[in-house]
Design goal:
Elements lengths: L1 E10 L11 E11 L5 E6 L10 E4 L4 E5 L1 E7 L13 H14 L4 H17 L2 E7 L4 H14 L2 E5 L1 E2 L12 H15 L5 E7 L7 H13 L4 E6 L3 H10 L6 H8 L6 E5 L5 H10 L2 E4 L1 H6 L7 H6 L4 E3 L11 H13 L7 H8 L1 H6 L17 E5 L4 H8 L4 H11 L5 E6 L2 E5 L2
Parallel strand pairs: 1-4, 1-5, 6-7, 7-8, 8-10, 9-10, 10-11, 11-12, 12-13, 13-14
Antiparallel strand pairs: 1-2, 2-3, 5-15, 15-16, 16-17
Helix pairs in contact: 2-3, 3-4, 4-5, 11-12, 11-15, 12-15
């Protein structure tokens, strides 16, 4: 057993629903991790268990222990094109995304990018991620293999796509189904890994492909569904042209059987009220990706309206339209997007979205996302003195809320000193 000493902070409940008593804080605390990688207890360091054989990890008084970050939407193959200049969504896909993803027919290239991807995620403290691969079965296996090697919690899916893309990325719907099924039966539930049925989005899917994706979901109801919805105004109009019989974009997915509590739809910037009612009724979740929405000029996410409809929200980096894997940036951009709409999110709400809120959106709230006894010991040790300016800012913090705000707006990968998944060290800056 190991005991980690530091200043503890963790969300424990949804602060949008419970304004008070939604987190724990212990100024000089401990996290006790048992031999199976579970959190056995937390508390004040002075009240720690008395055990001479207990290994104590003490990195000094300037350490904040927080739950690992949860990124609920990113594109693994787009890491190498991050920050590519110019264009709105549909133009950007054709100019940058599709040519980049075509390179993943080479499994060796996929392995190289997989290694780089998990280097970046772990360096930034992201310990759970929902990940798009490409249409290539071999590349998707490579991402799973690397996630397994690193010992992280990952949900990955092979992109399914059979129209409105370059020929070298298009699949036969039946072959896409079979390849997805092989990957699912191989990787879903293997250790910390899970599978997501992953049609790219409605415009690159024929009705037959969506039908087969829905069939896969019926066959494996505990698998995830991961796709996009209503990111861009032109995209929404295109869906109306491609699916004229559907009442709405969300209805396209409902008819295919792709909505549900394990379905994560990225973006949702331009959803209609009737669509939000449908998503709430089916318990479908939305991954808010503010950095990429700003980068591509897709629009301002109406967070309050979506929450008022009863739809769960989490945060995604959306690499590579998102320009960084940092969940600090995701939190900061989420704050700014709401500020210009007259909504002020608290630091507690932002940290919830990036940790426990993400875990709950992925139906993993009983496993990870907070520093509560009985959950897996997935946490980061944050260095409050990682830079001279951050040190100046955190030293003068007047409250926990002020401290968390400083980290949100000034934090980056330099703050993440060490990361643990199920009590096992998976990344260390020193």
């Amino acid at each position: 057993m190991k005991l980690f000493r530091g200043h503890l902070f963790s969300p424990t409940a949804n602060p949008f629903e419970r304004p008070t008593e939604n987190h724990i804080e212990v100024a000089d605390g401990y996290v006790l991790v048992d031999d199976s990688g579970l959190i056995a207890a937390t508390g004040h360091f002075d009240e720690r268990p008395s055990n001479p054989d207990l290994e104590v990890v003490d990195r000094g008084r300037d350490i904040l222990i927080v739950p690992g970050f949860v990124d609920t939407h990113l594109h693994a193959p787009q890491l190498e094109m991050i920050g590519s200049y110019g264009g709105h969504l549909l133009e950007w896909l054709n100019r940058y995304t599709f040519p980049t993803e075509a390179r993943f027919a080479d499994v060796n290239h996929a392995r190289e990018i997989a290694s780089a991807l998990f280097d970046e995620l772990l360096r930034h403290g992201t310990l759970t991620a929902l990940i798009f691969s490409t249409v290539h079965e071999g590349a998707t296996s490579a991402f799973f293999e690397e996630a397994e090697r690193r010992g992280v919690r990952a949900i990955i899916g092979k992109t399914m796509m059979d129209r409105n893309a370059p020929d070298n990325l298009l699949e036969d719907p039946e072959e896409s189904y079979e390849a997805s099924r092989r990957l699912l039966t191989t990787w879903h539930g293997r250790g910390l890994l899970r599978y997501a049925i992953t049609p790219r989005f409605a415009p690159t899917s024929t009705p037959r492909l969506l039908e087969l994706a829905g069939k896969l979901k019926r066959e494996f109801p505990d698998a995830y569904v991961h796709t996009h919805i209503s990111e861009n105004v032109a995209e929404v109009a295109w869906v109306r042209e491609l699916f004229p019989e559907a009442d709405s974009y969300a209805e396209v997915y409902r008819e295919a059987g792709l909505l549900g509590e394990r379905s994560i739809l990225a973006h949702g910037v331009h959803l209609e009220d009737r669509e939000l009612t449908l998503l709430a009724a089916t318990r479908t979740k939305i991954s808010h990706c503010p950095n990429s929405n700003l980068f591509l000029g897709s629009g301002l996410f109406p967070l309050r309206r979506i929450l008022d409809h009863g739809v769960e929200i989490s945060l995604g980096s959306d690499i590579g339209a998102g320009t960084t894997p940092s969940m600090f940036t995701a939190m900061a951009d989420a704050y700014k997007v709401q500020q210009v709409q007259g909504v002020s999110l608290t630091p507690f709400q932002l940290w919830y979205l990036a940790t426990l809120g993400g875990a709950e959106a992925l139906c993993m709230g009983d496993e990870t996302g907070s520093l509560e006894a009985g959950k897996d010991a997935d946490f980061n040790l944050l260095d409050l003195r990682a830079t001279s300016l951050l040190s100046l800012r955190t030293e003068g913090a007047e409250s926990l809320q002020d401290l968390l705000a400083g980290l949100i707006f000034m934090g980056d990968d330099r703050v993440v000193l060490q990361s643990y998944v199920k009590g096992r060290l998976v990344s260390s800056r020193t």
